[in-house]
Amino acid sequence: DADVTQTPRNRITKTGKRIMLECSQTKGHDRMYWYRQDPGLGLRLIYYSFDVKDINKGEISDGYSVSRQAQAKFSLSLESAIPNQTALYFCATSVGGSSREQYFGPGTRLTVT
Amino acid sequence: GENVEQHPSTLSVQEGDSAVIKCTYSDSASNYFPWYKQELGKGPQLIIDIRSNVGEKKDQRIAVTLNKTAKHFSLHITETQPEDSAVYFCAASMKTTDSWGKLQFGAGTQVVVTP
To answer: What is the pLDDT of residues A90-99, one digit of tens each?
Structure first.
């Protein structure tokens, strides 16, 4: 079974709708991240969380919000989706400490029409 | 903040040849440089990394070199095989007081290995 799962895998929504992307992990890692991938721009950090009580903005947090419901769950919300939020979204986890390896989920392809 | 540039954006190689991807970074405080491979329909996966106290690291057919003075690092893949076809991302990270650094990714390189 996958260690980092994301739901849904694909989503088409309309401008102005609220949408939530969910991430769950069974790795037991404290640290979780949300990235956005656009062609030619690589991966850009949206939000990250060190633990359940810690939430931090990343490089491109405007228009997004997150919730860390438990150590294993980290959700990304778009309060009012707009077309330029069409992208591939990835959740990742890391154990922290001296290891900086991040483990990515399979991604959610979001299309805003 | 840190800025990472990656070249080329696409790379086509014949099976068996070598592939080289280059990245430059802007912040001399960066001290950790991972490379991730993203296969079609999947999330990125770490394939090799290097820390600033090391100049070169090898793992079978892949190697990474780091030039701290010039602030650039490169991924080398030898004897390429069709399964090496993927998007490769470089990244740079600084060590913060809590021993964690955000990863700043390059734009990615699409590698195509033709038989």
So the answer is: 999 998 777 7
